[in-house]
Specification:
The protein has two helices and two strands. With 74 residues, the protein is mostly helical. A two-stranded antiparallel sheet has the order 1-2. The relative contact order is 0.09.
């Protein structure tokens, strides 16, 4: 009986580690699928925030901001 009770904490620890890894993988996959086809969050180009936009929308925003001189030239 002593051998079985000694293995139990190791099995519990292994199950917890596997569960944490699986939760991380699932959260990463959900984030990847929901943001696929978009520019990554918190991306700025020439001081213009384009994060979370589609590539076409990001291009339009950049052209618009740059054409209208919205940038601070410091």
């Amino acid at each position: 009986m002593a051998e079985k009770s000694g293995k139990r904490p190791a099995i519990v620890a292994l199950v917890v580690i596997i569960a944490v890894v699986l939760i991380g993988v699932v959260l990463y996959a959900v984030d990847w699928f929901t943001s696929s086809g978009k520019v990554a969050r918190n991306v700025t180009v020439a001081a213009v925030d384009i994060g979370g936009l589609t590539p076409d929308a990001a291009q339009q925003r950049l052209v618009s901001e740059l054409a209208h001189g919205q940038l601070n030239h410091s």
